[in-house]
Design brief:
Length: 363
Amino acid sequence: MIGQAVILAARPKGHVSTSDFDVVMTTVPALQPGHVLVRNTWLSIDPSVRLRLGDASPRGYLPAFEAGQILEGLCVGEIVESRAAGFAPGDTVMHAHGYREYAVVDADSGGLAGAGRLTRVNPSEHHPKDYLGLLGNTGMAAWAGLVLVAQLREGDVVWVSAAAGAVGSIAARLARLRGHTVIGSAGSPEKVARLRDEFHLSAAFDYHTGDLTDTLEAIAPEGIDVYFDNVGGDHLEAALNVLRPGGRVAMCGAIADYDRDSPAAGPSNLFQVVSKSLTLRGFRSGEFTHRFGEMRDELGARLAAGDLTLDETVYTGIESAPAALVDLLNGRSLGKTLCRLTGAPDAGHPSPRRDQHARATVR
Ligand code: NAP
């Protein structure tokens, strides 16, 4: 069997470009015992892929991709053939071998440090793509960051950066639904309007306009209690300035560092962690796979009730995956960025090549 796949053609120099990738025809390996063959239908586009495109990935992280290697990423699909106990043809599954139309998956392999273990999902309960968004790694990062890492307490004032993106929009809206004062930041006036007018956050601002610390001090003169960090760099520095004593930072990601040859300078004000007894904790959603049930109970119920939805930017066809990644890193997508592979059941979802701003129409 053959199928298309996205490979790393050349290591990016500076900003990643679609020319750093090739879409090639590959031969799908024969099935071994314990493996399943999956026809992938939806691919999650995640900024973390960028961390693996350089000569070396950050210490402690997943290894860099080799030139010519098929990229990895979370996806859902349908089992075509199975030699693994507990999995049968027709099952809808989530796994880590995205960026290809057909994947052979070892049912015992963890995949992406635990986040991408082959798992059956229920397409009659939720749309398969929801298991990449609200009910998947994305939702887990938001839920775990707020609930387990920042340990939200009544009355907390929360700032979420990249709040119009996938993780950020869930975190911001979930904190709001739980009754918190929530400040959201994003990179364009349109995104800020969405945060303010449709997510009903307490305040929203464009991080390009004005000094971050000044802006936050004007919005929250008494300071903030929790910073949900998707950005790092200057955003983290500003958060340290405005956090109240005992404040917490859930360090989810540092996208400001990803798409460049050398990392940005770290915050110059780290002493504030000492002077204000702050807690900074990094985390990966894969740490919390044992809490997936709880996360899905809360977010699934909110999704079913219609009080928590996730904007989507959907690309169609595996050949559009490199452009989806480049657009994501450059702030040109809203909500969760997905690639719908040819042959994915439509389920009423719009399907032009790029369904810009498929807003709160998750189901
Ligand atoms: P996303 O927010 O949907 O997309 C990334 C957004 O980051 C872009 O749309 C852009 O929005 C913003 N951005 C890019 N460069 C920026 C910069 N220099 N300064 C400020 N904002 C910038 O992506 P996501 O999948 O939800 O991921 C968000 C963060 O969470 C990333 O850091 C990612 O690595 C991390 N993450 C962590 C985990 C975990 O387990 N810890 C899991 C998933 C994701 P604007 O238009 O607003 O600039």
